[in-house]
Records
---
Amino acid sequence: MKKFLALILLIATTTTLLANSDQKTFENQKEIPTPQPMLNSQKITHFPINNSSFTYISIGANVTLLLPIPVPGVNIGYREKYKSFALDMSLYLNSLIVANAIGGKVKFLKNLSNTYIGGGITGGTAFVLDTPIIAGGNPFFTIGKESKNNFYEFDVAIIGISNLGFSINPTFAFSYGYKF
């Protein structure tokens, strides 16, 4: 098999060279071009990370039209701040003792001084007595205000998708966070 493949490679190479007899090779090429450094090229710079990036824990509550009572919750997360925007990643736990939800959130926030606006996506699973009953996620909008040691924010989600299908279920969440 190896001899057969070597023969095919030899025939293909010979055919290519015969078909392009005026093609330059390294032996008959007078000058081999070498890459030239770019003149006046700009140095690639990255957005400097703002020294106010932080880890946080927050407490809050969610209210939805399907369950119109406040559901308390806790988030733990990290917010990476850049010049004019921030990326926020967190894990959450919401609990009503017999019914719980766990999941994660990712947010993109636009910094406006000490106020921010943005949006993100959340995904998670709801449990009733240790039995998963629904898994899904939804996009949401967020607005918040930040100070030196803490922040508070308000999230609004309208639509969602889960293992039960697409749903329109307005959800409102408020949280107060402490930076550390």
---
Amino acid sequence: MTQCLWSATSSSSTACPRHTRRSFRPGAIYAQEFSRFCNLEREDLILADLADKYGMQINEVSADARAEMAKVAQPAVIKLVAKDIGQMPLTST
């Protein structure tokens, strides 16, 4: 059963029957979203604590700067991930 649960998120896994893998996916997605929500809240609390207790100044990155960083970083990350999983990245024509 442990192997079945561990392999449930892998679409290429044959350790669990397909219907079992399908039943785990919604729970895994919910858990991922809940974890992200908790981490965002925790991050806000940590930043507030750093500012209040230690006087740290927190600099926010603008939306334009984030978009520029993503534009520069995303192609390199896609290439690295594609290499890691053994697939060629899709290219736009």
---
Amino acid sequence: MKVLRPFILHFWEAKTMLRMLYTDFRSTLLNRGIKILMLIFAAYIVGYVVLLKLIITLLNNGGSLTADDVLMVYNQSSIFVVTAATLIVYVGEFTNGSVRNKLCSGAKRSDIFLAAIINSAFLSFLMSMFCQMLEIVLALIFTDGLHSQILSEAAYSMLETTISCTAIAVFSVGIIMIMGGNYASYIIGLGVAFLLKIFGMDVMRQLYPEKGPVTLTGTKLEVYRFFDKYVPYARCSGMPRWDMTSLLIGCAGLIIITTVIGLIIFDKKELK
């Protein structure tokens, strides 16, 4: 019996983890805030495309709405949408007592944290697929196809955004768990997303100037290149510039760092 005990405990822990994941997945799919967010953003995508099509038609200057334009809509806002989604779900988990209930039922803090990480990746994937499928449908209805990209390039761009958003969602949840799910998480989470978005725009402007050569040199040039190549926040632009290997390295690095630091801090965090 003593020999079997470690295996029984391991099986029980794995079963508990799977049950927690199932509960988290289900509660995420049923979350009212997520449904409202997706409905609002879907309306934004449709409204943006329809309005752009209407403006181009009224101008009647020979221009046309392309699939390239439509497929860029989610990319422009994906950082904020994914961050907002994780905030809605996981700040809610703390405020409604779900996290404390899990602890009271005997769940380990490490399991709670890891379940949140996995669930955030699941949530990000669902949201990216939903928005991108909606864009594809709108592109088929309102445009005459791709102009500046070929199909494989468009597919790569969508995949790049999906993978990047997964890492961003994990990072956002890590911040929420480290902060204990208090309402300041909204300020920090959205603030970080906003600042990195602004910095990413400056990186694009400096590394890919419309006129003239790149003027950056030395350490600043290397920092900007590193951000542009490896940081997921820079890979949601809809304009792929680097290979898949660098994307996977950057996303894996952010996920691993978030998970390790988050586990250490959350394990010692005093929850209110």
---
Amino acid sequence: MLSAALAAPRILLHSTGPHVKEDGSVETIQEIIEKKQRDLATHKIIYWYNKDSRPDCLHRLIKQPTYILMFDGGRPPKGGGDSNLAEAFNESSMRDGGIWRPLPRGMKVTGRMNRGAAAIVITEFEDCRGEKIDLAQFTSKGTNDRLTVWLTDRSVPQGGNRKKDLVAVGLVTHPYSVWLK
């Protein structure tokens, strides 16, 4: 899947890393990958929390299945966090529209469940740890047409070494992103 993603005309880049679980402990990349693989095996879908994937923005930008490259850009969190479990999702572009449905039984999606909480919808997923990617080949300015959306601009290195460790590759499919609560 990585080869197909790198050859695709449009991709998403997403920085990920260890994060605080709802009990305050740290969830490692290894644990996150294993949890998402179980979600896909059991539920045939992954909801990957990302505060920058709000449906009111992403639904306008993505109109067809799109690959997402997840690279290691996260630092271990300091101290506790305010992460908690999502209980429901909504596919509507507008948070107050549509129907809220419960997440599949046993699926744990953690993050800050505030009014802007959202998740990327993934139906294919591959562990890519050990691979590297040079972010210099992608741009958010449209100069090389390789990237249409940066979900986390602030984690892209500026100048210097732009090689990053890959974590995973996924296929983002309809509805592309959902609201969480």
